[in-house]
């Protein structure tokens, strides 16, 4: 028997009449009758008691009715699930990010827009050390990752450029640099720099100031960086979005007057990605950039 036999059986059971069932199914009544007879021969039971006016389910037919309804529902659900997966409307995406993706609001914007479009896709979202993210995407441990560029990527990966922003200086409240009305990069030559995960801003500020920076610890997250600044362990060059997002005691944020350095968020994905759900997320991001 095939799934169509169950559909024919259920239609006859609902209508109690071969002709009306055949009209709904779009087939000739004799054809429908033969299909039901084929079922009965294969099962070795009678499914319907027939009369000229109507047909009624036998005990065997009543027993089959529940299972047939279940079988058709399961079959339809399987078809729908496969079609939704092929369209990228179901499945799971492993998504990694650096904290500045959340501070900028880009992560929230993208996830919200995608989830509204594809509510059937489960997003597993994790903050992870930036240095680990590209390798995890390449190796299939993550599907997508938000990183702060510039950074070198494996050849297997591709990056979509997102939000660009400049840098600001995070100073301990006790630092005498706070007394300087306009802070040039050269004024920072003798300071110890606490390093965020993306150190390009620190290096560019030092280059513009004409000095080799004295590098301090690299504690990891931006919150950890600003915490060390608040404890007087050094200064830090951090993305401008931090000013509105991380407000710790004993920390002042200042502009560097001659700083032209900038960085940008990127969404990293595998260059030849085939998973429909993942590509749907990428297309959603690109459509909103």
From TrEMBL:
It comes from the Bacteria. PROSITE patterns: HTH_LYSR (PS50931). Gene3D superfamilies: Periplasmic binding protein-like II, Winged helix-like DNA-binding domain superfamily/Winged helix DNA-binding domain. The keyword Transcription regulation applies. Residues 1-58 form the HTH lysR-type domain. SUPFAM superfamilies: Periplasmic binding protein-like II, Winged helix' DNA-binding domain. Keywords: DNA-binding, Transcription, Transcription regulation. CDD domains: PBP2_LTTR_aromatics_like. Belongs to the LysR transcriptional regulatory family. This is LysR family transcriptional regulator. It comes from Pseudomonas putida NBRC 14164. The lineage of its organism: Bacteria, Pseudomonadati, Pseudomonadota, Gammaproteobacteria, Pseudomonadales.
């Amino acid at each position: 028997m095939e799934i169509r036999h169950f559909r024919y059986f259920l239609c006859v059971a609902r209508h109690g009449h071969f002709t009306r069932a055949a009209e709904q199914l779009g087939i000739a009544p004799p054809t429908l009758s033969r299909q039901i007879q084929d079922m009965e021969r294969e099962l070795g039971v009678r499914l319907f008691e027939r009369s000229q006016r109507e047909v009624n389910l036998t005990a065997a037919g009543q027993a089959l009715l529940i299972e047939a309804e279940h079988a058709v529902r399961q079959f339809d659900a399987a078809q729908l699930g496969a079609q939704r997966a092929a369209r990228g409307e179901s499945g799971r995406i492993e998504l990694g990010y650096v904290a500045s993706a959340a501070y900028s609001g880009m992560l929230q914007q993208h996830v919200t827009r995608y989830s509204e479009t594809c509510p059937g896709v489960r997003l597993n979202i994790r903050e992870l050390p930036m240095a680990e993210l590209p390798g995890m995407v390449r190796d299939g441990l993550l599907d997508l990752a938000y990183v702060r560029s510039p950074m070198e990527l494996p050849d297997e990966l591709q990056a979509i450029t997102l939000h660009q922003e400049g840098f600001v200086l995070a100073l301990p409240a006790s630092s005498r640099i706070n007394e300087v009305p306009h802070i040039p990069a050269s004024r920072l030559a003798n300071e110890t720099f606490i390093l965020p995960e993306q150190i390009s801003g620190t290096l560019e500020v030092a280059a513009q100031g004409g000095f080799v920076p004295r590098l301090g610890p690299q504690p990891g997250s931006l919150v950890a960086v600003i915490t060390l600044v608040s404890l007087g362990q050094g200064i830090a060059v951090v993305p401008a979005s931090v000013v509105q997002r991380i407000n710790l005691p004993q920390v002042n944020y200042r502009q560097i007057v001659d700083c032209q350095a900038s960085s940008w968020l990127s969404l990293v994905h595998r260059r030849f990605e085939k998973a429909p759900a993942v590509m749907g997320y990428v297309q959603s991001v690109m459509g909103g950039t």
